[in-house]
Design a protein that fits this description.
Elements lengths: L1 E4 H6 L2 H4 L7 E5 L2 E6 L10 H7 L11 H9 L1
Parallel strand pairs: 1-2
Antiparallel strand pairs: 2-3
C-alpha cells in the first residue's frame, strides 16, 4: 500500500496507471487518509449474447427487450 498526498495524486495520473491487481493507493490530505484507490480488472465488453444472458425474465432470445435491460442497469 502506497501513500501519496492529494496534490501528488491530482498532478500525476501515472500513480494510478502503475497499480497492479491487489495494490492500493491511499490519498491523504493534511496527514489524514481521505480515500483509497484500487484498480479494477478489465471490464468485459457488453455484447448482445452477454446482455441476453444477464437480462431478467427474458424468455427466448426473440423476446429480448434491450430497452428494458438498459433501464434495469440504471437501477
Amino acid at each position: 500500500m502506497k501513500t501519496v498526498t492529494a496534490r501528488e495524486f491530482y498532478h500525476s495520473s501515472k500513480l494510478v496507471d502503475d497499480l497492479h491487481a491487489g495494490d492500493q493507493l491511499v490519498v491523504t490530505a493534511n496527514g489524514k487518509p481521505k480515500f483509497v484507490v484500487s484498480p479494477i480488472g478489465s471490464r468485459p465488453k457488453m455484447t448482445r449474447e452477454l446482455a441476453e444472458s444477464l437480462a431478467i425474465d427474458a424468455g427466448t432470445p426473440q423476446d429480448f427487450d434491450s430497452v428494458a435491460f438498459l433501464r434495469s442497469l440504471k437501477k
